Amino acid sequence: MVSITIMQNKVTNKKIIVTGASSGIGERMCWHIAKHGGTPIMLARSIEKLQNQQKLINQTFDISSYVYQVDLLNADELEKVIRQVLSEHTQIHGLINNAGAGVFDYVRDIQWLDVERMFQLNVFALMRGTKLLLPHFSQNQEGHFVNIASQAGKIATPKSSIYASTKHAVLGFTNALRLEISSKNIHVTAVNLGPVRTNFFTTADPSGNYQKSVERYMLDPDKVADNIVKHLFTKKREINLPWWMEMGSKFYQLFPRALEKSLRKQFNQK
Questions:
Q1: 215-244 pLDDT, tens per residue?
Q2: What is the pTM of this model?
Q3: Name one GO molecular function term (predicted).
């Protein structure tokens, strides 16, 4: 009960922007933010899904929430919406950069349009949103950036070259940002996840083969979301799930050739 009370005190009455809020981890994070007295500000392309979620949150928790339709592939649209949010709310306390997508394919086969879309959504939108919120957080001397990266940002595997590259970029950006604003009361957290049971694989792996091969290892999106929300407004540097995959990434840093050789079959499951 003590840990829950502490978390509630940190999240209660805080306004937190969540991108990719209409499904998966984003949807569940908004739910847990509201559950603990916070105000989710939900951004996604599907305004209908957002409005349905807004209604459910209000009915369940008697908590206000806000929805904004935005296509994160459109940089101008993202900037317009962020500026609208800042003009309509006295203070924003957190930004969870959750929106992302992947397409698993060999470098020789990947479509360039997919490359551009992954970088725009996974990297450029995240960086742009962060840059737009940073002056606001600095002025208020309070804030928390949570960037959803991936274990793929630590261990790249065949057919994930582009997706892994975007997550490498997210980790590099997140770590540098943390150092740049270390003197301010602004927290920066990277979230590195293995496979999560969401609709991510509908686009990433239309064949379903990879999802079938890792089904038993998949993370529950609700548990992931709960874990992330529990660490809001704390000094948590990284959230790494599952733990054994994080151990694998540490081993990989020390013995990359040995791990690539011993796990060749697993690395080629996509």
A1: 677 889 999 999 999 999 999 999 999 888
A2: 0.88
A3: oxidoreductase activity
